[in-house]
Specification:
By secondary structure, this protein is mostly helical. Helices cover 69% and strands 2% of the residues. The protein folds into three domains: 215 residues, MFS general substrate transporter like domains (Growth Hormone, Chain: A, Up-down Bundle); 73 residues, no CATH class; 229 residues, MFS general substrate transporter like domains (Growth Hormone, Chain: A, Up-down Bundle), CATH 1.20.1250.20. 45% of the residues are buried. Keywords: Membrane, Transmembrane, Transmembrane helix.
């Protein structure tokens, strides 16, 4: 097997469990998530824009939960137990989703195409629906990245860890593509209950395989949340706000004795007031030379960790509105596809939710192309590699370009609707092929291939070793926030304008896209400023490699 060649027999044996578990989790989770908008519109008579808003909230929740899962795993339960519990919660959520699809009493009667009088779900139906979505979301969000952490913990060599993460993202993408095509097709063309039952079976098998391999896993004991150390620095600095700073290295507490020999001491450090947290005062250190009052004294290394996080926040924040347009576009593209001609030949009809596969395939292809050909060629031609910040910046530009393409395609769609007088017919199919949506989704995939790996690598390399788990969660966190921002932005535009009615055929989605183009351009300018300042901070002074800060 390929895994045996990469890691050896034992790790190959472990990864059979890990790969099987991850595949089942993603097949199950994305099998219902990819088609959620269509399910809400067709089975629960939810208006298309409202369905998009609900889907954005769900996506946001799923991407925020890994941070909570990481904190619980690091502080209390460990990665194995968090992954197992999350998979079981997802298992329960799939049972509820099957019930909503199978039992007619748990959903309203179907709405006829072209009818403006559709019965909304009852309160009980809404409760069961939202409970099932919430439970399934919590399970998927809590297990995805925890499995990645658990897998990396089995390996010792950094090179093996990097290879493992390559396999991890490959399995995620491959499983997502299968979910968004095969399972979505079953849901659309055969029955929702059968599609959800397949997701249920995948979840069950994943949980069984995962538990069966428990005795082979190497599980690290919880070490406490790294956020606690960051908070201690703030509290200690505030408590010592009246203490005068010293320029002598020996007046500060070092986690390792040898660190004080190489730690530079300068008069003008960035966020210099945080240095007070590491200044030694009477009663801070016990007879063994260890910290006696952890909420009043921290090490220089802990102060450096907090400074690193603060220094990266501006660049990290620019990623929120980099991903917000993508979140809006990905969801609305599904509602656009529902109103377009999706026939491939006379007998096959492309499921609306499956068009998002274009983004997955595009990003996967271009990540490999950039890594193996474009970036090495660039380095040979210019004599220097493309920096991580440059990759992220190129991603910004390409995402803005995709919004402009989306606006022009939507203008074409609206013109076709006007020419055929379909504005007043909810659910009417526009005589325009769904292929028109592919260019914008293809360009999004190219942009993602630039900025997503760039962001992950930037945070991983810049964060201190003690905060590496947080570094990988930073991207998930920004994606989660972006989905909530997209929900708020769409709702704001709905309230202030008439561009986003329940029937998108009578709306002006093109105006929304042009707003995203403008906002994306402004956000790119903000990123350039942040990137320039961050670069200046890094080259301004030589910083100790262990602590990452200067006094």
């Amino acid at each position: 097997m390929v895994m045996e060649l990469l890691y050896g027999d034992w790790v190959a044996f472990y990864n059979e469990f890990q790969g099987g578990t991850l595949s089942g989790v993603i097949l199950s989770g994305f099998g219902w998530l990819a088609n959620l908008i269509v399910y809400l519109v067709q089975e629960f008579n939810v208006e298309s824009i409202n369905a998009t808003q609900i889907a954005n909230v769900v996506h946001g929740c799923i991407n925020l939960l890994p941070v909570l899962g990481a904190i619980i795993a690091d502080s209390f339960l460990g990665s194995f137990h968090v992954a197992a519990i999350s998979s079981f919660i997802s298992f329960l959520g799939m049972i509820l989703l099957i019930l909503t699809a199978k039992l007619s009493s748990l959903k309203p009667p179907p709405c006829e195409i072209g009818s403006s009088f559709c019965r909304a779900p009852s309160k009980l139906q809404y409760v069961v629906l939202y409970l099932s979505i919430t439970t399934a979301s919590a399970g998927l969000g809590g297990s995805r990245y925890t499995l990645a952490t658990l897998g990396a913990d089995q390996l010792d060599k950094p090179k093996d860890k990097e290879t493992f993460f390559n396999w991890f993202f490959f399995i995620v993408n491959a499983s997502s593509i299968i979910s968004s095509t095969a399972i979505v097709y079953v849901e659309d063309s055969i029955s929702w209950a059968l599609g959800y039952t397949i997701c249920f079976a995948a979840n069950f098998i994943a949980l069984a395989v995962f538990l069966a391999g428990q005795r082979f896993y190497r599980c690290d004991k919880p070490q406490g949340s790294p956020f606690t150390g960051l908070l201690r620095v703030v509290v200690a600095a505030v408590r010592k706000r009246k203490v005068l700073l010293s320029s002598r290295s020996e007046d500060y507490y070092h986690e390792h004795c040898e660190t004080s020999k190489v730690m530079p001491v300068t008069a003008n450090g960035w966020f210099r007031f945080l240095n007070r947290a590491a200044m030694k005062t009477e009663g801070d250190i016990d007879s063994d030379g260890l910290i006696a009052r952890p909420w009043k004294l921290c090490s220089l290394e802990q102060v450096g960790n907090l400074r690193t996080v603060i220094r990266l926040v501006p660049i990290w924040s620019s990623g929120i509105f980099l991903i917000t347009p993508v979140a809006i576009q990905s969801s609305i593209a599904v509602t656009q596809a529902l109103s377009m001609d999706r026939h491939l030949g006379s007998n096959f009809k492309i499921p609306a939710a499956s068009i998002i596969v274009v983004i997955l395939v595009s990003s996967s292809f271009f990540v490999a192309l950039f890594d193996r050909f474009v970036f090495p060629t660039w380095q040979k031609l210019t004599g220097r590699p493309l920096t991580l910040l440059q990759r992220i910046g190129i991603g910004h530009v390409i995402i803005v370009l995709s919004m402009a393409i989306s606006a022009m395609v939507e203008s074409k769609r609206l013109k076709t609707i006007h020419d055929n007088k379909l504005e007043a017919l909810p659910g009417a199919i526009v005589p325009m092929q769904v292929w028109w949506l592919f260019p914008q989704l293809l360009v999004i995939g190219i942009g993602d291939a630039f900025h997503f790996p760039g962001q992950i690598a930037l945070y991983y390399h810049e964060f201190p070793a003690s905060l590496r788990s947080i570094a990988t969660a930073m991207v998930s966190l920004v994606v989660g926030i972006a989905f909530y921002v997209s929900t708020a932005l769409v709702e704001l535009i709905r309230r202030l304008t008439g561009w986003l009615p329940g029937n998108i055929n009578s709306g002006r989605l093109d105006n929304l896209y042009w707003i995203l183009v403008t906002a994306g351009a402004l956000n790119f300018m903000y990123f350039l400023v942040c990137a320039k300042l961050y670069k200046c901070r890094n080259i301004e002074k030589e910083v100790d490699a262990n602590s990452g800060f200067d006094i």
